[in-house]
Give the backbone structure.
Amino acid sequence: MLFRMLLGVTASVGLLAAQNVQNQALTGEAARSAEIAQKNPFASEADVQQGGVLFQVQCAVCHGARGEGGRGADLTVGIYRMGGSDPELFRTIRSGIPGSEMPASRFADDDIWKVAGFVQRLGSRGMAEKAPGDAAAGKELYAKNGCAGCHRIGDQGLDLGPDLTNVGRRRGLVFLEESLVKPNAIVANNFRAVQLVTKSGQNVSGIRLNEDDLSIQVRDMSGNLRSVMKDGLKEVKRDKPSLMPSYERLSKTDLANLVAYLNSLKGE
Ligand code: HEC
Ligand code: HEC
């Protein structure tokens, strides 16, 4: 029923998107209040439906057309790291989650409430996708393939890749699988691979944490932080975006098991 509703409204997305842009132009920041209501003031059935349309426009690219997750979290699970009450969801959507790819929304407050209502609807239907693999077998593959040489889970492992302690909460199944077979497809800004060659012929490989006109900060392959002045460099090679090797060579079953294990990592 929810899915039919989504399909039904997709046709009008273009129109509403255009209207919304106009609304924003008219109302701008003025439509944003400092006080956040304790209860969603836009929770009628029509509001939630409109929220669904807005969701397709600004959120589905990352969270999937049905909220099933991808680059963004699976929103059908109904569990929220930043809280699931009306005002908490409102705040998450309006301000984004600092330090993650979850952006602040440019919607006016009314529209944010409508989307929040739709997100809650997604989370209350029990439609969460089950990972088909075997998480226990995946855990063994994780150990066998040296993933901990770059990733941290809890207090185990290194920081050359993203911390995976709660990756099952942050990312959907499709994204997790893609991370393993096509690591270069989406690489977070502070995890890009670089190789520095100094004027004296020294080589430093690792991930680029930060960079400005004068210097570049790198975590080298042993996990050490290094800050290097650019005027001492002969070359900065950035030809391979991700440090992570592709695990395409693993069997379908092994990949499914690894994905199931990653999906089971929900943090504290
Ligand atoms: C560029 C990709 C991207 C877009 C666009 C995006 N999100 Fe997210 N969203 C994410 C990611 C990644 C996370 C997980 C962040 C984390 O927990 O570290 C997330 C998390 C969330 C969460 C869960 C927060 C929690 O407390 O666990 C909600 C709710 C959410 N997004 C709603 C939305 C809505 C609604 C929109 C559209 C207005 C949207 N997102 C647009 C990437 C995105
Ligand atoms: C040589 C270091 C290295 C190894 C080994 C490695 N990774 Fe990665 N991984 C990275 C880096 C760097 C990133 C971030 C850039 C990217 O997305 O490709 C990453 C990204 C990821 C992501 C996406 C996380 C997110 O939040 O975006 C997942 C999931 C992942 N790795 C799982 C694994 C698993 C499972 C293994 C073992 C089978 C593994 N990695 C082995 C370096 C590594």
Summary: Residues 70 and 172 are 4 Å apart (CA to CA).
